[in-house]
Design a protein that fits this description.
Blueprint: H1 3-11, E1 14-18, E2 37-44, E3 52-56, E4 63-64, H2 66-69, E5 93-100, E6 106-112, H3 123-127, E7 130-132, E8 135-139, E9 145-148, E10 172-181, E11 193-203, E12 214-219, H4 237-252, E13 262-267, E14 275-278, E15 282-287, E16 290-294, H5 304-315, E17 319-323, E18 335-340, E19 344-353, E20 356-359, H6 366-379, E21 390-393
Parallel strand pairs: 12-13, 12-19, 16-17
Antiparallel strand pairs: 1-2, 2-3, 3-4, 5-6, 5-11, 7-10, 8-9, 8-10, 9-21, 10-11, 13-14, 15-16, 15-18, 18-19, 19-20
Bound molecules: 2-OXO-4-methylpentanoic acid (COI).
């Protein structure tokens, strides 16, 4: 994908939406584009708990807040909030913006959620030209909604889907920005058109056991990424390879309880001795007061939760090392845990490597629990956000 197209899309700090939202179409108008988009600027406030104000680009309109624009959106959607998993639930709206060849992303629109039309020859379908992001919104006890570090995702969005943000304590709204080559290509070439799209889905725990430990299998033959490849970028293609490794592990391992969750831990493809990452998340190894995680060097995704946990751990007095972590270090670790937007902090109960299983106990470890607790309280607005990571929508 051309860098300029990606950067234009991911670095602009504005987005567009309808100025006539009090007459929003109902869901039965599926795929209807809302009328007359205009641009809004996100402004960070220099407050302790930072928040963005939506500023209309049109001087006639002045400032707009979400609540005065979408008056009926503060009620909750009618779903079973107690049974949220990490499956997809379709919500009300999605945001779509396109960029023609040689042009700029513009005229973004909020549309009713629905299928999108693509040429069979679209770059994303044929050559995997696609990037994605993932971030979460939590509902605070006062009803306001917190986004966690959206600028890290270079994200532009509008919370027309706020009724899908789960009630406090029941989960979060997972926000998925997608950038894809939507223009038709046949030869291997950048697509002549790109589409930027954001959809959302309310979610609960990624692993259905919640913060119960997951069991990892160290994969020593298949590799997630190679130096010089795209492992450090959130491309859609990086995740497809996981299906074969996850399936192999499930078929071959007989050491675990039948219902245990199996997730693959990848090693570096050159020495086959250093930890890389887990199929959907980063990994941390705890020994005494020291926490080690593989250094970002092109093959590992620079997770926003990874980065946040490093800062939180340091603020809690832990020594954090970003370096090469030997697979053998798992053998005498006190605790192992994974991090990611979807999984948040997930403790590891056991690691199986070349048929040998190391167990870290049945519950969440003390350090993992401490870090999980600080991070999630911060994300949910239960403690003061000294880091200024959250963005409050009003
Ligand atoms: C995330 O953690 O947000 C991801 O994008 C990982 C994905 C496999 C759910």
């Amino acid at each position: 994908m051309e860098n300029t197209a990606v950067l234009t899309c991911l670095q602009q700090n504005y987005f567009c939406f309808s100025g006539h939202s009090s007459s929003l179409p109902s869901r039965s108008f599926s795929n209807t584009t809302l009328s007359q988009p205009f641009s809004l600027k996100l402004q960070k406030q220099p407050a302790l708990v930072s928040h963005y104000v939506l500023r209309a680009a049109s001087p006639a309109r002045g400032y707009a807040t979400l609540s005065d624009t979408y008056s009926g959106t503060s009620e909750l959607a009618d779903i079973e909030w107690d049974n949220l998993g990490f499956g997809f639930l379709s919500t009300d709206y999605m945001y779509v913006m396109k960029c023609p060849q040689g042009g700029k992303f513009s005229n973004g629109e909020l549309q009713c959620f629905g299928n999108i039309e693509l040429s069979p020859s679209a770059g994303v379908l044929n050559y995997g030209q696609g990037l994605f992001e993932g971030l979460k919104a939590y509902r605070k006890e006062d009803g306001n909604i917190l986004l966690f570090r959206p600028e890290e995702n270079a994200m532009r969005m509008r919370m027309a889907n706020r009724r899908w943000v789960p009630p406090t304590g029941k989960g979060s709204l997972y926000i998925r920005p997608l950038l894809m080559g939507s223009g038709a290509v046949l030869g291997l070439a950048p697509a002549p058109e790109y589409t930027f799209l954001i959809y959302v889905s309310p979610v609960g725990n990624y692993f259905k056991e919640g913060v119960a430990p997951i069991n990892l299998i160290v994969e020593h033959e298949l590799h997630r990424a190679t130096p010089g490849g795209t492992g450090g970028v959130k491309t859609i293609g990086n995740y497809a390879a996981n299906y074969s490794a996850d399936a192999c592990s499930e078929g071959t391992i007989g050491l675990l309880r039948p219902k245990a969750i199996l997730t693959v831990l990848y090693l570096d493809c050159i020495h086959k001795r250093y930890l890389e990452e887990v199929s959907s998340c980063n990994i941390f190894v705890v020994k005494d007061k020291m926490i080690a995680t593989p250094a970002i060097k092109g093959t590992i995704l620079p997770g926003i939760t990874r980065k946040s946990i490093i800062d939180v751990a340091q603020s809690q007095g832990f020594q954090v090392e970003e370096r090469q972590v030997l697979v053998d270090e798992l053998l005498d670790a006190d605790e192992v845990f994974c991090t990611g937007t979807a999984v948040v902090v997930s403790p590891v109960g056991s690691v199986t490597y070349l048929g040998k299983r190391v167990s870290y106990g049945d519950g969440i470890g003390v350090v993992s629990q401490q870090l999980y607790s600080v991070l999630t309280k911060l994300q949910m607005g239960l403690i003061e956000d000294k880091m200024e990571w959250t963005v409050e929508l009003r």
